[in-house]
Amino acid sequence: MLKYLKSLFIDHPREVGETYFEHQRFAMGTSIILLFLGVCALIHSLMPFTLKDVVSRGVHKLSDRFSRRENLRDDWW
Predict the structure, then answer these.
(1) Which domain holds residue 46?
(2) Would you say the pTM of this structure is higher than 0.85?
(3) Per-residue pLDDT tens over the stretch 29-70
(4) What element of type H or E holds 31?
């Protein structure tokens, strides 16, 4: 049972070439960025004259972040 529980936390990070804590840091950072961009999109939807390109630039930067990560770990797939 303990081995199964350990595999739940270790297998996926290992699949993408990271430790548990590296994967946690990447996922938390991504979630914070997405939350911020969501708030910006909400504000922009109510006041279209504000934050005109924040969300689109943020999505592009997030895409670049994932692309760099995938390029470093091409052999895991």
Answers:
(1) 2-76
(2) no
(3) 999 999 999 999 999 999 999 999 999 999 999 999 888 876
(4) helix 20-46
